[in-house]
């Protein structure tokens, strides 16, 4: 089966996106993971061979010799390391067009280069980040779930881009259950696990210590775990967050369900920052991204590493194929 090409967004053109895009093409040009970049070719490194294409279907025929580009035009000049909200709409258009290609079935998935939420916000972008915008584009707002995945660990925060105070105020049994069900389905259809195993983190120190250090485990997390088990999900917890990420503990589950953003992201970025990939679950399309930001401070200096983007592209290709096989009843 021939894999469909992936759609890679431009990201913020003043960040390291153009550099890591070039690095990813050089790493993958002979490796079978074909992608087309949607952006302004003028902001790519001048040494990079580029071929403008009219449709993403043409990407495979040129990929080994040049980076296929579906061109977009930026209204303002790009200075590496100096973001400009005048270019925000083109950054947004790159995301929207990539999603459209995936929804139309001509792209195997969407891989997003890093954006600056602050820069987009100044231009009127109303979403907290990529994840929420993608859910709106796919007409499933509120169903999006963020996973960070690497060969060493997969983590899913139940609450995402909100303050810690707001996370504590909004966390609920229903949120935990819905996030757990979405994660279990994705582990089956996208990652190829026949019987996915979830581990649920406690919220409080020592997972509450039987209510001595907080009742959220008793009142909210344990009932959510019981609900998930009733739905047929293999799940353990609540586990003390300070011990559930050790090497021996990680062998006992396929993904960790965490209660808030940093509880999930600190362990995976500590263990495997270079190969971490952001995966959006709950969408009708496959979406991944590198597990880092725009890195304006090193943009244009030729030192940005493409490792995480390469991992994101490779994983998106695998997830796309697994999802298709799942729909057709074939082994992943």
TrEMBL record:
<comment type="similarity">
    <text>Belongs to the PdxA family.</text>
</comment>
<comment type="pathway">
    <text>Cofactor biosynthesis; pyridoxine 5'-phosphate biosynthesis; pyridoxine 5'-phosphate from D-erythrose 4-phosphate: step 4/5.</text>
</comment>
<keyword id="KW-0560">Oxidoreductase</keyword>
<dbReference type="GO" id="GO:0005737">
    <property type="term" value="C:cytoplasm"/>
</dbReference>
<feature type="binding site">
    <location>
        <position position="261"/>
    </location>
    <ligand>
        <name>a divalent metal cation</name>
    </ligand>
</feature>
<feature type="binding site">
    <location>
        <position position="161"/>
    </location>
    <ligand>
        <name>a divalent metal cation</name>
    </ligand>
</feature>
<keyword id="KW-0963">Cytoplasm</keyword>
<keyword id="KW-0460">Magnesium</keyword>
<comment type="function">
    <text>Catalyzes the NAD(P)-dependent oxidation of 4-(phosphooxy)-L-threonine (HTP) into 2-amino-3-oxo-4-(phosphooxy)butyric acid which spontaneously decarboxylates to form 3-amino-2-oxopropyl phosphate (AHAP).</text>
</comment>
<dbReference type="GO" id="GO:0008270">
    <property type="term" value="F:zinc ion binding"/>
</dbReference>
<keyword id="KW-0479">Metal-binding</keyword>
<keyword id="KW-0170">Cobalt</keyword>
<dbReference type="GO" id="GO:0008615">
    <property type="term" value="P:pyridoxine biosynthetic process"/>
</dbReference>
<dbReference type="GO" id="GO:0000287">
    <property type="term" value="F:magnesium ion binding"/>
</dbReference>
<dbReference type="InterPro" id="IPR005255">
    <property type="entry name" value="PdxA_fam"/>
</dbReference>
<feature type="binding site">
    <location>
        <position position="130"/>
    </location>
    <ligand>
        <name>substrate</name>
    </ligand>
</feature>
<dbReference type="InterPro" id="IPR037510">
    <property type="entry name" value="PdxA"/>
</dbReference>
<feature type="binding site">
    <location>
        <position position="206"/>
    </location>
    <ligand>
        <name>a divalent metal cation</name>
    </ligand>
</feature>
<dbReference type="GO" id="GO:0051287">
    <property type="term" value="F:NAD binding"/>
</dbReference>
<keyword id="KW-0664">Pyridoxine biosynthesis</keyword>
<comment type="subunit">
    <text>Homodimer.</text>
</comment>
<feature type="binding site">
    <location>
        <position position="131"/>
    </location>
    <ligand>
        <name>substrate</name>
    </ligand>
</feature>
<dbReference type="Pfam" id="PF04166">
    <property type="entry name" value="PdxA"/>
</dbReference>
<keyword id="KW-0520">NAD</keyword>
<dbReference type="GO" id="GO:0050570">
    <property type="term" value="F:4-hydroxythreonine-4-phosphate dehydrogenase activity"/>
</dbReference>
<protein>
    <recommendedName>
        <fullName>4-hydroxythreonine-4-phosphate dehydrogenase</fullName>
        <ecNumber>1.1.1.262</ecNumber>
    </recommendedName>
</protein>
<keyword id="KW-0862">Zinc</keyword>
<feature type="binding site">
    <location>
        <position position="269"/>
    </location>
    <ligand>
        <name>substrate</name>
    </ligand>
</feature>
<keyword id="KW-0521">NADP</keyword>
<dbReference type="GO" id="GO:0042823">
    <property type="term" value="P:pyridoxal phosphate biosynthetic process"/>
</dbReference>
<feature type="binding site">
    <location>
        <position position="278"/>
    </location>
    <ligand>
        <name>substrate</name>
    </ligand>
</feature>
<dbReference type="GO" id="GO:0050897">
    <property type="term" value="F:cobalt ion binding"/>
</dbReference>
<feature type="binding site">
    <location>
        <position position="287"/>
    </location>
    <ligand>
        <name>substrate</name>
    </ligand>
</feature>
């Amino acid at each position: 089966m021939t894999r469909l090409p992936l759609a890679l967004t431009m990201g913020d053109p003043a960040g390291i996106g153009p550099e890591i895009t070039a690095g990813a093409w050089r790493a993958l040009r002979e490796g079978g993971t074909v992608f087309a970049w949607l952006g302004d070719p003028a902001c790519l490194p001048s040494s990079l061979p580029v071929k403008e294409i009219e449709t993403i279907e043409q990407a495979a025929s040129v990929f080994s010799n040049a980076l296929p580009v579906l061109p977009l035009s930026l209204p303002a000049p790009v200075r590496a390391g100096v973001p400009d909200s005048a270019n925000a709409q083109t950054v947004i258009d790159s995301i929207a067009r990539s999603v459209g290609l995936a929804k139309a079935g001509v792209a195997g998935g969407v891989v997003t280069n890093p954006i600056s939420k602050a820069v987009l916000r100044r231009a009127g972008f109303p979403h907290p980040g990529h994840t929420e915008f993608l859910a709106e584009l796919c007409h499933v707002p509120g169903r999006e779930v963020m996973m960070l995945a690497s060969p060493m660990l997969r983590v899913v925060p139940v609450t995402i881009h909100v303050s810690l105070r707001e996370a504590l105020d909004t966390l609920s049994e229903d949120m935990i259950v819905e996030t757990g069900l979405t994660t279990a389905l994705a582990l089956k259809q996208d990652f190829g696990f026949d019987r996915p195993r979830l581990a649920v983190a406690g919220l409080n120190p020592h997972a509450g210590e039987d209510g001595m250090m907080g009742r959220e485990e008793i009142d909210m997390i344990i009932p959510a775990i019981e609900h998930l088990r009733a739905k047929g999900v293999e799940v353990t917890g609540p586990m003390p967050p300070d011990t559930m990420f050790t090497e021996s503990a990680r062998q006992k589950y396929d993904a960790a369900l965490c209660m808030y953003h940093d509880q999930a992201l600190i362990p995976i970025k500590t263990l495997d920052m270079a190969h971490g990939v952001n995966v959006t679950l709950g969408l009708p399309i496959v979406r991944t991204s590198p597990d880092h930001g725009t890195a304006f401070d090193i943009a244009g200096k030729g030192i940005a590493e493409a490792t995480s983007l390469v991992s994101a592209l490779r994983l998106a290709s695998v997830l796309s194929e697994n999802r298709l096989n799942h729909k057709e009843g074939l082994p992943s």
